[in-house]
Write a structure and sequence with these properties.
Elements (H helix, E strand, L loop, with lengths): L5 H24 L20 E2 L13 E7 L16 E3 L2 E5 L5 E5 L5 E5 L8 H4 L10 E4 L5 E7 L2 E6 L14 E3 L13 E2 L5 E3 L2 E4 L2 E2 L10 E5 L5 E5 L18 H4 L9 E4 L4 E5 L21 E6 L5 E6 L15 E7 L2 E9 L5 E5 L9 E5 L14 E5 L21 H13 L14 E3 L13 E3 L4 E7 L3 E3 L1 E3 L10 H12 L1 H4 L21 H10 L12 H11 L3 H5 L17 E3 L3 E2 L14 E7 L5 E6 L4 H4 L13 E4 L3 E4 L6 E6 L5 E6 L9 E5 L2 E8 L11 E6 L4
Parallel strand pairs: 1-35
Antiparallel strand pairs: 2-41, 3-4, 4-5, 5-6, 7-8, 8-9, 9-10, 11-14, 12-13, 13-15, 15-16, 17-18, 18-19, 19-20, 21-22, 22-23, 24-25, 26-29, 27-28, 28-33, 29-32, 30-31, 33-34, 35-36, 36-37, 37-38, 39-40, 40-41
Helix pairs in contact: 5-8, 7-8
Length: 730
């Protein structure tokens, strides 16, 4: 046998070794995450935000450059428009949504647009009038594996089915390519607010949908539905507010709650386990968010992780993370389906992060916690009539909370002047505080880590190689103040008096006691310069983005609200015509709130000391915190070497190249971190803040990472573009 030269032996062994390593890596990563494509919301049906691509790594990420930028051309700066979309990339085609809900396709290597679908064009007459602009966080994709390729997304109240090749509606689906999400809820919801901000999940020939509904009394129910991808026919429904004879019905003290209570909706997205044929969803609170005197009981299936048979909608198991929620503690991101090493064995699990900064790790088979969870006593005495708070709430012992959960005097912001510090101290002393389950009150209750605290809709990312889960979080105190409201007309009211009463009952919880706005809801002061009376009345009928429709009110009631909000002196003096119907005891509640009010210093900073935004890495095998860093900066503090973090919206992604990518912050930066150490390796400025989750993909062997630059939140200016980054050259 001839002997090979030494150099030949060396290279042959090297090539064999490299091939062996590549095979090992493929075996290690092949079961989870995205490859060259980004084919589903958050990268995969498991919702783990993971990419197996590794061309961009810790050694070269600092060389990233803009590869292309696509402008949609329809930002609305006056209305603070946003792009929250996590785009899809399939077979080299990029699919995204614009601020005004236009769906489009583009070349994923160049950003050159291929087609645009405008949902307004598919509506006519009355339907066009009642089209509501909503935020869209992603799309769904279905294919038969051949030429039939379909995109699904929600614009307004309509779920659209669009041919992915042409951008045209699939006419065989529903009503010429769309179905109305008001319909098929097993309850009359035609005048109620129903849309979807998160995409549905595809399982075989089904598109499974959750919805976003109003959060006030009288909201639509948040039932989960599955539709045939070919015809749009409803195939099954799961009642998240159980009906007579269904499991969970007896957790509502009022036997008729299913007829009038809304919410308990899977607004944040759905995860699919293809292997077992199960779907998993996290649900929101029941309505009204902050008072449960008309819905006493533990309220299944609100605030639950739900496991259902994906083919039939049949109940399998649930885990309730808040009992009888009156703090708006919705599950805000879809369950992450992970496989962790526990006690030396692989376990298929669910990782569910919460607004309170807790992380529940459950066995995917039966919903049992994989780390100890205790039902601990909480403050349970409410001053509000008929309210019955639940005496205990579930709290995991591991992993430990990834944010602070209480705000006391020791936590007051120490970066502000002394006069401001003393002002915060005085106000804090006047509120209920010191426990994250402190009851809503008339004096004001501190909600911490906040209504948008802990994890928000961006959700966590998971690395299947290291078992590390990455989650960005907010720590912002808010103040919830309850107020008494009149439930019906006095009989002698003017339009102005009725308008003030109706505003207080229906609008104040978002726009504030004095119409000055609150939280993410805009001020109504000066709105008469933007809308005349007919335009404002149409807005009340249609809603817009986060604002629901008020079509459930009588015309005379909407006219009264318009006269009050617009300051129409002549109209305010007219006698109010009370509706013939009596006030509904279930929807006309005795309490409302003064709005979503952040607890800020005089200078506009959070009243609590930093950090205000963080990025966290948690080891799911042990429950230990692997690393933590602030996320985002205020320039005035960063200049002094103080890194505070900022509020953040949108999630991160993790890659096989050793990186965690995230935008999400109000400072409009895009950053990359070493996934094992948390070291910041790269950052760049975006044209507008990227309040969205990035997507990672490859075209012709070249890796890209793209982020929507829509701005529009936290005072950031609106943008209209998607920007992709790549390494220079091939």
């Amino acid at each position: 046998m001839p002997v090979k030269p030494a150099a030949q032996i060396h290279w042959s062994y090297a090539i064999a070794f490299l091939l062996y390593c590549l095979c090992c890596a493929c075996r290690q990563d092949s079961k989870a995450g995205a490859g060259d494509s980004w084919p589903a919301y958050n990268g995969s049906k498991e919702n783990i935000h993971y990419s197996r691509l590794a061309s961009i790594d810790t050694g070269n990420v600092s060389q990233l450059q803009p590869a292309w930028e696509l402008h949609t051309g329809d930002a609305d700066t006056a209305a603070h428009s946003q792009i929250q979309c996590n785009p899809l990339v399939i077979d080299g085609v990029f699919y995204g949504v614009s601020p005004k809900m236009k769906l489009f396709a583009a070349d994923a290597a160049t950003g050159r647009q291929q087609w645009v679908f405008n949902p307004f064009d598919s509506l006519a007459g009355n339907r066009r009038m009642f089209f509501v602009l909503n935020n869209c966080r992603g799309l769904s994709y279905w294919t038969d594996g051949h030429a039939n390729k379909r995109l699904f997304y929600t614009a307004g109240a309509y779920l659209y089915c669009i041919d992915a090749a042409t951008g045209k509606p699939v006419m065989a689906f529903g009503d010429k390519g769309k179905i109305d999400l008001h319909e098929g809820l097993d309850r009359d919801a035609k005048n109620l607010f129903v849309t979807a901000t998160s995409p549905g999940a595809v399982y075989k020939d089904l598109i499974i949908m959750g919805t976003r509904v109003d959060e006030a009394a009288g909201a639509a129910p948040g039932h989960i539905r599955a539709y045939d991808v070919h015809t749009g026919r409803r195939r099954w429904i799961f009642h998240t507010i159980p009906q007579p004879g269904e499991y969970g019905y007896d957790t509502w003290d009022d036997s008729s709650a299913w007829k009038h209570t809304g919410g308990a909706n899977a607004w944040c997205g759905i995860s699919i386990d293809e292997k077992t044929g199960r779907m998993f969803a996290g649900t929101g609170s029941a309505s009204f968010d902050f008072y449960g005197g008309k819905r006493t009981g533990s309220n299944l299936f609100s605030d639950c992780i739900l496991a259902l048979d994906a083919a039939t909608g049949k109940y399998i198991w649930h885990f309730q993370e808040v009992h009888h929620d009156v703090w708006d503690r919705d599950l805000s991101s879809p369950p992450a389906l992970v496989t962790i090493t526990k006690d030396g064995k692989p376990v298929d699990a669910i990782a569910q992060a919460t607004k309170t900064g807790m992380l529940f790790v459950l066995d995917r088979a039966d919903g049992k916690p994989l780390f100890p969870v205790e039902e601990r006593p909480v403050p349970a005495q409410s001053e509000l009539k008929d309210e019955k708070l639940w005496p205990v709430q579930p709290m995991p012992l591991l992993p430990a909370p990834f944010v602070r959960q209480t705000f006391t005097e020791a936590d007051i912001n120490n970066l502000v002047p002394d006069s401001s510090y003393q002002d915060i101290k005085k106000r804090l002393a006047s509120y209920k505080t010191g426990h994250m389950f402190a009851p809503p009150s008339r004096q004001g209750t501190v909600i911490f880590p906040g209504f948008d605290g802990g994890v928000e809709w961006g959700g966590p990312a998971y690395d299947p190689v290291s078992n590390l889960l990455y989650v960005n979080a907010n720590e912002m105190p808010w103040v919830l103040t309850m107020v008494d409201v009149k439930t019906q007309a006095s009989g002698q009211e003017t339009n102005g008096e009725a308008g003030a009463r109706l505003y207080k009952a229906n609008c104040m919880s978002c726009h504030g006691a004095n119409r000055e706005g609150s939280g993410n809801y805009p001020t109504l002061l000066g709105v008469n310069k933007k809308y005349n009376e007919p335009q404002f009345l149409q807005l009340l009928s249609t809603g817009r983005r986060m604002m629901p429709s008020f079509r459930q009110l009588e015309e005379s009631e909407r006219n009264a609200i318009a006269s009050y909000v617009l300051g129409l002196a002549a109209a305010q003096q007219k006698k109010f015509t009370a509706p013939a119907r009596p006030a509904d005891a279930y929807t006309h509640l005795s309490y409302s709130t003064t709005g979503y009010n952040k607890f800020l210093s005089k200078e506009g900073y959070p009243a609590v000391r930093p950090p205000w935004g963080t990025l966290n890495a948690i080891n799911l095998s042990t429950g230990a915190l692997a690393w933590k860093d602030t996320l985002g900066d205020y320039p005035e503090f960063a200049a002094k070497g103080i890194h505070t973090g900022t509020e953040n919206y949108g999630g991160c992604v993790v890659t096989a190249g050793g990186l965690v990518f995230i935008a999400a912050t109000r400072d409009a930066k895009f950053r990359a971190y070493n996934k094992r150490t948390g070291q910041l390796l790269w950052e760049t400025s975006l044209p507008a803040a990227g309040f969205a989750t990035p997507s990672v993909y490859a075209v012709n062997g070249k890796q890209y990472i793209v982020i929507a630059c829509g701005g529009g939140k936290l005072g950031a200016r609106s943008g209209d573009s998607y920007r992709a980054y790549a390494l220079p050259g091939r």
